[in-house]
């Protein structure tokens, strides 16, 4: 299950297939995103407090493998098993220069943006900041009066903790994302899956067909 968040909150929650439809429509016209929480694309699992002890039935696993045409050797990974956490975030009210310094300290290329209620509302990258920064030799000039909220990507695609990692990899590839934030049903940011997280899983426990 994937979702889209912006400054108004959650605007969409549905399967990967419907995410593609919405994104395709957004490219040509301004539509109202629907919020559908009645469907899921993975078998339900217990709450995060119990997930480490949970066992998914062999029948459910086999059904899921059949859907994705996986063989018995291929492990099934969900986002909560691979995600990095806690997540370093940046406030929407931070000014551009302070945000740049924060990025330099953290050594990240991209961070989720949160509002005063600590809800995710966007993503901010180094490239987003550069549109307001001019570096001339050793001098750094920036557009005054601008904040992170002015530079960030206005919509962010997120995934549920139980989203299959293959589906997340597909979203990254199709929408040129370096990371996908993981948000639970209470709209709480609980982790992030990056390209390096996926590569680590493939390296440590092959084979894993990422493009099933």
Task: Summarize the structure in words.
There is one protein chain. The protein has helices at residues 16-26, 58-68, 79-82, 96-106, 126-130, 148-151, 165-175, 195-204, and strands at residues 2-6, 9-14, 90-91, 110-114, 120-125, 133-136, 139-142, 156-159, 179-183, 189-194. The protein has 212 residues and is α+β, with helices and mostly antiparallel strands. The chain has a single domain (2-204), classed as CBS-domain, CATH 3.10.580.10. The strands form four sheets. Strands 2-1-8 form a three-stranded antiparallel beta sheet. A three-stranded mixed beta sheet has the order 3-4-5. The chain has a two-stranded antiparallel ribbon with strand order 6-7. Strand 9 and strand 10 (189-194) form a beta hairpin. The longest helix is centred in the N-terminal third of the chain and has 11 residues, at 16-26. Mean pLDDT is 80; it is low at 30-48 and 52-56.
What's the overall geometry?
A: globular
Q: How many helical stretches?
A: 8
- Write down the CATH class: Alpha Beta
CATH topology: CBS-domain
Major sheet description: 3 strands, antiparallel
What's the CATH architecture name? Roll
CATH superfamily, by name, is: CBS-domain
Report the average pLDDT across residues.
80
Give the end-to-end Cα distance, rounded to a whole number of Å: 16 Å
Q: Uncertain spans, ≥5 residues at pLDDT below 50?
A: 30-48, 52-56
Structural class: alpha+beta
Q: Indicate the proportion of strand residues.
A: 15-25%
Radius of gyration over C-alpha positions, nearest whole angstrom: 19 Å
The total strand number stands at 10
H/E element sequence: EEHHHEHEEHEEHEHEEH
Helix % is 25-40%
Provide the spatial order of strands within the biggest beta sheet. 2-1-8
Q: Can you tell me the number of structural domains? A: 1
